[in-house]
Amino acid sequence: MAKAAESPWRWRNIVGLLLTGGLATCLVLSWVWHDTRWALGGLLPLLGLVLLRKEPQEPTSAPAPPAEAPPPARQTPPGTEPPADLETAFALLESGTHDLRTPSQRVTSARFLKSSARMLAEGQLGPYKILKELGRGSSGVVYKALWEPHNKLVAMKILQRLAEDKERRRFIREVKAVSQLEHPHIVPIYEVDTLQGRPYYSMRFIEGHDFEHSLRTNGALLTELLPGRVRVLIRIAQALHYLHERGYIHRDVKPANILLDQQDRPYLVDFGFAKHTALDIRITQPGTTVGTPVYMAPEQILGRQDQLGPHTDVFSLGNLLYQALTGELPHARPEIAQIVQSVLAEAPVPPSQVRGGVPAELEQLCLAALTKPIARRLASAAVFAQRLSAWLKKETAGH
């Protein structure tokens, strides 16, 4: 078949050479004998060359083999199918244990982690002497550092996002606005800027541990642990109410973002996800879902920015109280799709069915904060703090 396809091209080449030779002969004879008739005679081989340049029809190719059947779709185990409108939510979610980033984002993240390791080895970043790494997450790395001009220990968070100049300027402007807030249970922010092209902010260093550590029971009875946990939640709810009154929502309220000093005084930290509700100030990339999925409210996990408000943080407070009462999270599941489905479509198991000895008042408060429809959810963080305070006052009065 290959030789048959090549034969038309072979005779075309031969004819082309003959016509070219005839044209050249006519031109030479016309010049030698000074006779224009030979030149006119060269028009015939020239016309033949023009016709020869027309492309022949390509031979009909053999029919293409049938396409392979697509691989069968992956089956989802029964009972784990997410609601139909969750594809957007899955695309938006980002967490430390579920890597949903694009390949380019993963490359950027890998470069950032390599750069942060080099930074730690060098031990100096601008006016900050890097002492040790405190932790890292999807948004950046936190270091313990010495702010040398002020001889002050700080926690320094360096962001890996916001690579464009416009985003960096916006980040600095907005965190500076948050740094003006003053509350005894909100960790103060000292400085916001960029170093070597990376946005960062430094804040007061809290010597102690996070609330996650306090939520570990270590075999102790709930009655022994609960008053201390409730005191922490009262202070954090009051701090959130202070934020809400000034138009901010935190959007990432979780045990890791609550630090306790050596006197067990709690501090709300990490305003990298804060949002101003009236001005639509977002200290994150626009159009993304931010926070930690298992603590998120339904409107937040779907990325519905226009529905976020103080009630979004109240839902996270409900998760914290549930964890304080039971040692578990109401929507904790092994897979991200199952977490999303649970947050959006499943009612939490009442805490008293998970663990004995749960006070009825606290269970009611917890479930009110975890109500999915916004209109029926607990009104505010202030009400949350007041109801916890009322229970604690009654509890301590009885002892």
Written account of the structure:
The protein is α+β, with helices and mostly antiparallel strands and 399 residues long. It has 2 domains: 92-205, Phosphorylase Kinase, domain 1 (2-Layer Sandwich), CATH 3.30.200; 209-399, Transferase(Phosphotransferase) domain 1 (Transferase(Phosphotransferase), domain 1). Helices cover 45% and strands 14% of the residues. The chain is built from 14 helices and 12 strands. It has helices at residues 2-33, 36-41, 43-52, 87-92, 103-122, 165-179, 211-214, 222-245, 298-301, 310-326, 336-345, 351-354, 360-369, 381-397, and strands at 124-125, 128-136, 140-147, 152-159, 189-195, 198-204, 208-210, 248-249, 258-261, 266-268, 275-276, 281-282. The strands form 3 sheets. Strands 1-2-3-4-6-5 form a 6-stranded antiparallel sheet. Strands 7-9-10 form a 3-stranded antiparallel sheet. A 3-stranded antiparallel sheet has the order 8-11-12. The longest helix is centred in the first third of the chain and has 32 residues, at 2-33. It is elongated, with a radius of gyration of 35 Å. The relative contact order is 0.09.
